[in-house]
Amino acid sequence: MAEPRAMTSTTHPSQMVQNPFQRFLIATEIDTRLLGMIGALAIIWVGFNFFSGGLFLTPRNLWNLSVQTASVAVMVTGMVLVIVTRNIDLSVGSILGVVGMVMGVMQTQILPVQLGLGLGHPLIWVLSLATGLAVGVGIGALQGTIIAYLRVPAFIVTLGGYLVWRGAAWWVTAGRTVAPMDSTFQLMGGGPTGAIGSFWSWVVAVVACAAIVVGIYFGRRQRQRFNFPLRPVWAEVSLAVIGCGATIAAVWVANAYPWPVRIAENFAEANGITVPEGGLFISHGIAIPVLIAVGVGVVMTFLATRTRFGRYVYAMGGNPEAAELAGINTRWVTVKIFMLMGALCAIAAAISTARLNAATNALGTLDELYVIAAAVIGGTSLAGGVGTIAGALLGAVVMQSLQSGMVLMGIDSPLQSIVVGIVLVFAVWLDTLYRRNKH
Fold first, then answer.
1. What is the predicted pLDDT for the residue at 217?
2. Residues 155 and 138 in one domain
3. Does residue 189 contact residue 359 with C-beta atoms inside 8 Å?
């Protein structure tokens, strides 16, 4: 028998493993928990497609699923950092509701009427969004300051915020629904006009694939620079192929979903286009809220993994006392985390309000539970110190897939809540087992 090779500083661990599948996982450095979630998502999709008579895995449903996931996906990227630092935020749904109501009032009353800009003014959506972001960051700063400097537990502060901000959302308009939203603002909600079309979707796909390849290349250069073990070239190529393949498949699905027949005919009539005998096929392409969610995910991933702030967050989650002794201003970092969470709630509020074309008192109801569940299902440990943005985004897709699939099957809302609750408890149990086995 051949003796196993001694491992040097530049030898990748995969070269010491004989099992092909294990070697692939080690060589590509794919997180096994992430792989498990992808497998679970595939089972959920195939199962719902079977029980719904083939309705789930259609371009229309998958496109709608992506849009419905967007607001929760935006908020879950911030919830990861909150939970990593051993805190919790139960107020995100209520913050979304009050910020959405503020943005709605800004667009329908304050800016066009009281300040005299007039309906349809190009600055209305910009000023409304800026005001919403300011309110969200302000609420986050207030809650973060109470948690960090007054030492009130995050659970209590955000539970109080859950009640306070939900009541404030009602108080802003005395319970009235505010509609309609500014036409430009509505683009953030999706729909035929809230998507970028086939051509620009393929442009996004090309840019994304180029970014994946360039990222892998420069990652390899960095490993060489610091004399770290290099992944085998075949593993790097595999990652590039998988990443680009998933991107192209997602864009293909988005482009396969056409505009509704009546809207396409109205568009053709307005632009003097002759409608073919089989009907006019105009692709939706990628929805704008999905682009926003993906953009937020990329920025938050960079923030969590490539900045000093991100390192401080994970250090605090791993050992708060050691982080403080190391000179990290843990109180100020905590305030910044909750300010960031408030800003992300404002972005999610813009998406939700634009999608409904109205600000309602029910906006964001139970979103806090879906956001926390998505983070935990995505591998974020409630014990702190562990969690990834990519995993949380995948968790958000899993949560929305469960909800969407149950709606297609006609399952009653109470039973949907039961299923979500069971899945959440199961995810926490798996996390407990995973951490126990690691130690």
1. 93
2. yes
3. no
Specify the DSSP class assigned to residue 257.
S
**Position with higher pLDDT, 260 vs 205:** 205
Question: What six digits make up the tokens of 64?
Answer: 């709608």
Which of 342, 437, 325 has its CA nearest to residue 96? 342
The answer to whether position 390 is within a domain reads yes
Q: Which residues pair with 285 in a beta bridge?
A: 197
- Whether 4 is in a domain gets the answer no
DSSP 348-367: HHHHHHHHHTSB-TTTTTTH
Q: In terms of domains, do 427 and 307 share one?
A: yes
pTM of the model: 0.92
Give the SS3 label for residue 134.
helix
Expressed as residue numbers, the domain containing 215 is 196-286
The percent of the chain in helix, strand and coil, each rounded to the nearest 5, is 70, 0, 25
Are residue 159 and residue 207 in the same domain, yes or no?
no
Q: In sequence order, what DSSP letters do the residues of 10-24 get, joined into one string?
A: T--GGGG---HHHHH
Q: What pLDDT does 115 receive?
A: 86
Last residue of a domain, one of 243, 265, 286: 286
Is 7 part of a structural domain of the chain? no
Q: How many domains does the chain have?
A: 2
* Residue 8, pLDDT above cutoff 80: no
d(CA 215, CA 347): 27
The CA distance from 87 to 362, in Å, is 26
